[in-house]
Amino acid sequence: RDLVRSRGLGDVYKRQVSTQSTGETLKYNFPKQTKIALISTIQFVSSLQRAQKEVCSFFDTIHIPQIRPLSSGEILGCTSPTIPTSNTDVLVYLGDGRFHLESVMIQNPKLQAFRYDPYSKVFSEEFYDHKVMHNTRKEAIEKAKNVSLFGLILGTLGRQGSPAILTRIQEKIENLGLDYVVILISEIFPSKLRLFDDVDVWVQIACPRLSIDWGAEFDKPVLTSYEFEILYRSLLEEQNQRDKNEGVFEKQQQQQQQQQQQSSSSSSSSSSSSSSGAATTMFNNNNNNNNN
After folding, report:
1. Do residues 220 and 204 lie in contact, with contact meaning Cβ atoms separated by under 8 Å?
2. What's the rounded Cα separation, in Å, for the pair 75 and 67?
3. Based on the number of CB atoms within 10 Å of its own CB, is 189 exposed (0-12), middle (13-18) or buried (19 or more)?
4. What is the pLDDT of residues 140-197, one digit of tens each?
5. 41 phi and psi, to 5 degrees?
6. pLDDT under 50 in the chain at which residues?
7. pTM, 2 dp
8. Looking at residue 83, what DSSP letter applies?
9. Is 232 within 8 Å of 172 (Cβ atoms)?
10. Which one-letter DSSP state was computed for residue 74?
11. Helix (H) or strand (E) holding 128
12. DSSP letter (8 states) at residue 220
């Protein structure tokens, strides 16, 4: 029941845990008016639902959010529901470890997060440094702007890879006039990517957490498909601005050439008029001399 504060970074078998201790822990640490959202992994989903039934008469609001096609309350490392703050004050994760919990913390940065470990019986408040994560990913996108060759990774582990997303990214790279190479691998390691020296930027179509959690371990930027969209928009704007500037420059050159041609034409006309005037004067002078 002791509440400890921890700072850190983050089986398919269903496990049964003591819902009585879970319910008692919630009652002990939160006042009755607290609005609670319960989440977990698939192993503890059934225990999560039983715990909700045990404490629903105590708390005014305690609910289990869902993001389809996952089960109610279930989260994955890269898939979590967006929980409205209007009916939620805190989210409580039932399970061990932080990897899955960090998924829902990333998705809901404004909610206070807690973790109850059913094995150690430790209830802790958890934190995630969103600012550091955002700055790290922004730096990766900025670094990726100096790109000539993209490396596109289609993950083959489970159902992580999406051929449709790959096709969309390929079309956008072609629209930029840049080159790319496609590789299919099940697991992404820095040692594997180092074999491709010519690749400037990697875009992985697998698990977003690969870039978020371990992106700094790679020599080259490893972007998610979403981060690629940000990069693409930036590169496209730069390209359009460059084309626009070149068009303005060419137009200015054309105007200067036209002005020079007009100046030359005016000078030629002036010279011709002066010559004609001089010839007329000489003709008149000759006539006057003859008359004399």
Report:
1. no
2. 8
3. exposed
4. 999 999 999 999 999 998 888 899 999 999 999 999 999 999 999 999 999 999 999 9
5. -95, 175
6. 1-14, 279, 282-283
7. 0.74
8. P
9. yes
10. B
11. none
12. S
